[in-house]
Design a protein that fits this description.
With 491 residues, the chain is α/β, with parallel strands linked by helices. It folds into 2 domains: 182 residues, Rossmann fold (3-Layer(aba) Sandwich), CATH 3.40.50.720; 207 residues, 2-Layer Sandwich (Dihydrodipicolinate Reductase, domain 2), CATH 3.30.360. Helix content is 26%, strand content 21%. Strands 15-14-13-7-12-9-8-16-17 form a 9-stranded mixed β-sheet. Helix 1 packs across helix 5, helix 6 runs parallel beside helix 7 and helix 10 runs antiparallel to helix 13.
Amino acid sequence: MHKKTRNERRDFIKKSGAAVAAFTILPSNVVSGFGYTAPSDKLNIAGIGVGGMGRRNLRNMNTQNIVALADVDWTYAKRCFDDYPNAKLYKDYRKMLDEMDKDIDAIMISTPDHTHYVTAADSMRAGKHVYVQKPLTHSVYESRKLREIAKETGVATQMGNQGNSSDDMRKVCEWIWNGEIGEVTKVDAWTNRPIWPQGLERPAETPSLPPTLDWDLFIGPAEWRPYHPSYTPWNWRAWWDFGTGALGDMACHIMDPVYKALELGFPYAFEASSSQVNTESAPISEKVTYYFGKRKKKGKIKMPAVEFTWYDGGLTPERPEGVKPGTYLGDNGGGAIFYGTKGTLICGTYAMNPYIIGREDNPPPVTNELRRIPDAMNGGHEMDWVRACKENKESRVECSSNFEYAGPLNETVVAGNLAVRLQGLRRRLEWDAENMKITNISDTDEIRVVTSDSFTVVDGDPRFDTKYATLNAKQAAENYIKKTYREGWSY
């Protein structure tokens, strides 16, 4: 938790006269006791981070009571505030948890990546069910820790990778498990992201801070830096301190059917190449390859070792043999290609519109062994979480992307950024997933990473001025895996 305990903060708020009157809505955790809500009851839901995707998530939950909204930028969040005029408004989610503890059952979180962990951990420790946008967390350690807290508290959890609940996801899994393409040893996946600027250097100018933005709360556990509009409200995904780049943004969607269908677990190694990497932001384009070992048999197929390769920033895999000319691989946003011993399966973003090459007009049947979720892509994913929140934790049917599943998936996704940021070592990185450690970096290994890269033209010729930082590779890797939080914030 943070420096002050929740009780200490609550006492402070009460003494300062900031405590608010109780809501007139009788909260369901009072009606039924923690861990159970009668099916006819409505949840009292709060939102943290509601200016962008969070607003859409809340709309998909608005059959429930939206009782509180917290956002550090009240201008960006105003549209959502207007949607729920009776909701109590906050900038600091911690104050919301203190003041409205008994009036909140569940919390939707859609903040920048670097604050997913702290908001979700505090919410779960306060006994609240949580829905957290993808990527689940900013780092490997945070994913592991959040999974542990979910297990300890027993709350209902869901990551916001809505394709995980889709019928197409189930079709991909059931086709593969039924042996329709044989044993899969290789998968390629790609995205059209980033659709925002990456490969950026830290801006030098310090413009005025917008009066409705609490910059200190935006920074949260990250290292302090001056405000600049290139960080928020939209382009935070590009910056290593706040986001996880195109890989973190989209792999939780596009790698998801691969991870679920092949039951990949953790990789034992990974490597990457990319456009220029710098100390500040993710590269413009990259290729990351993960190596997974043999797994247990599933359905009618064996699960041999798999090589999974990720492409982004305009890079794409080669077109497989048999794909009809003019046919998109996947869709405009990306997709995945499963290479099996009997055939090749292709799907789009969110596992959408899967087909097997040569069987486009004669797809195999599904086995219906996976639970179907109605209207998954248009609110069903969120409402399945609402359903789980209302069930007794002892007999609950867990959400499709609950943290027991989403935690390892997210660990794998963000571990790919280790390969990108450490590619200067020029080797495949051996990964001890159990201990969250790269095992083939010595105490003396170093990497040189670009800090700035500029040039001027003199008499028609470019004169480059590239500057580098030399980092101890082992220390850098440890910090990428488990970040050092700013004073006042802790795990």
